[in-house]
Amino acid sequence: MRGKRLQRRTAWVPAEVYPPSFRGERKEKKIVLGHGAGGMKMHRLIERVFLKYFGNPLLERLEDGAILNFNPGGGELCFTTDSYVVKPLFFPGGDIGKLAVCGTVNDLAVLGAVPGYLSLSFILGAGLEMAVLERICATIARMKEKAGVEIVTGDTKVIEGAGGEVYINTTGIGVRRPGTKLGAELIRAGDMIVINGGIGEHEAAIAISRGADSGGYRLKSGLKSDCAALHRMIQAVLECGGVRVIRDPTRGGLATTLNEWCRFSELGLLIAEERLLVSRAVQGVADLLGLDPLYMANEGKVVMVVAPERAETIVKTMQRFAEGRKARVIGEVVREPKGVWLKTRLGSLRRLLMLEGEQLPRIC
Amino acid sequence: MRSSARIGAQELRQALALVNEKVEEVCRKRPDVNLMEVCGTHTMAIGSFGLRSALHPRLRLRSGPGCPVCVTTQSEIDRAIRLAFFKGVTVVTFGDMMRVPGAAGSLAEAQAEGADVRVVYSPRDGLEMAQQAPGQEFVFLGVGFETTAPAVAATVVEAKARRVKNFSVLPMFKLIPPALAVIASSRRINVDGFILPGHVSTIIGARPYRFLVTRYRLPCCITGFEAGDILAGIFILLEQIARGVPAVAIQYRRSVRQEGNPMAKRLMARVFKKVDAEWRGIGRIRASGLRFKKGYESFDASRRFGLPVLKGKGKPSACRCGEVMLGLILPPECRLFGRSCTPAQPVGPCMVSSEGACAAYYKYER
Hints:
The complex is a heterodimer. Chain A is an alpha+beta fold. Chain A folds into two domains: 29-176, CATH 3.30.1330.10; 184-351, Alpha-Beta Complex (Phosphoribosyl-aminoimidazole Synthetase, Chain A, domain 2), CATH 3.90.650.10. Chain A has ten helices and 13 strands. In chain A, the strands form three sheets. A seven-stranded mixed sheet of chain A has the order 8-10-7-11-9-12-13, sandwiched between helices. A four-stranded mixed sheet of chain A has the order 1-6-4-5. A two-stranded antiparallel sheet of chain A has the order 2-3. In chain A, helix 5 (130-147) links the parallel strand 4 (114-125) and strand 5. Chain A is globular. By secondary structure, chain B is α/β, with parallel strands linked by helices. Chain B is globular, with a radius of gyration of 21 Å. The interface between A and B is large, with 33 and 51 residues.
């Protein structure tokens, strides 16, 4: 009712009096504090953007939460959450929306679960372009479709002061087959370490697009983030049997993940530098910025320890998937030396320790 | 950069075997060979390739003073931190500097306390920031050697041309050859040859090192950063030692020319003049630092903000970074190493910088 009256009144006023954004039909171009205030503005945002992209019967009820009518069928319920604060929002190979879906899906996948439902919460900085939000939502819609998950509940907050920033939290629920056993305690000497491709691609792509944003350097690299949902490949691998433990080497990279496995173990993990795949572009970025690909984040990689007799089958299975085309064995579990070690191309051993803080870009 | 000269694992192992044979040969006439890798990037590269443990035990690689963060004095850090707390001032810096401890804390801690400190990859980022926020003062921390000084010089020339009034630089630059002169002339120091820095030499060329050969008869080789480069560099040095004919060799030919980079050298000469400088852990070295020349003095942040030269408190410490940087001891010989001094809680600068000898040893050689 009120909306209609407003519209009629604008018709009486000469159009030039209002700035362009107020003329005619009021199309909202930017996020303002009101979009998080719970009133009409927020409801319009939900209807025009969120329901448009993620609409499904559970979400459309617009209640405070979702009632999941599902029966795990004796399976174990898996539950995870993650927040996404990446800058820049868009980077070669993806954006924050793609990360928000794939990251949480992968966290469920490495537990051995088939992901089913996601929650999606936005924290938006006032001043964010509506078009940017729509672009991110479109990616999320595409990715959830591809991954076969539904977004069933969500939340939006708008904060002031932040110049158009976007933070996303997603929580995921999935189910895994009863009796699935995965864990670092299952690792045995002689086991093989397998990964589904090259390392460091996500962090290298982010680093490059950060530099391009600030005008500091513009590199043509063809570099892309490896961001991808991995649950289908992981499910196929679990079918093969012999999988001891799975992890996605995100923050802190491969070396950090291996160290997490080794922390409370009496065994050693020995990686062969020759077997590792580091693309020339990633190595170039790493050298330029003084980073080590072994410690650089991945978003579409999964590393696992598998029984030696299953290793070949598992690698072949992974290679059937686009995300696993370059899958390979990169090392083995040994009794001595303890800890995580890299056998360098020179044949010497180099200890791979946990990173102390963050990797800082260096001077020269 | 490094990746352009990758060679296969097999060739690398052959090269390693050749080098170790050569060490054997040289050591028939002497107890051991001590080579100094001057540059921090070499220290890191040697660590990451696992070279130290693969090389013949009688060949020792000692780290030199070529880590820019490590040789920045505590009082210089304190000045930068003081600046960061000035109202309306943003300190812009390379990432390495963030965690270096000053008398009261580091830039990272100052940032957590509300000081405006931003990490950039290039001094030009600082200039861009300054142009976008004309009301705010932006100070770039001018840390580094001949490698970074030309980029800062170029930025200052550009700032002058664009009449940017809110950008300045806190100059803390150091020059490599004067530091090498100190090392070569000291009696305490035991160095049989220098693995000279590739990046610095790309700018200054080979000539500034001539005195190491003519005056001190020390073998020198300007070396690249790939495993193959470093092995080749070491081999060239061993060859010079074996024949007793020192020279300034250039192994890193794909980047370094005899005369260096004339354009970069001109830029530096246009903007900077040489002054005496204080090196952390080493002391004062003649004509080893850079200050702005007449005409560019207004870009000197210490003048613009009237920063006093802070006297170090001289906190008594068992930290032996100075001796590490002169090649007198290896990091594990310091009592603090790995105990009270770790990358998470660094006492000395060599543990902070990713290129510091102690950090490299902590990361790769423990």
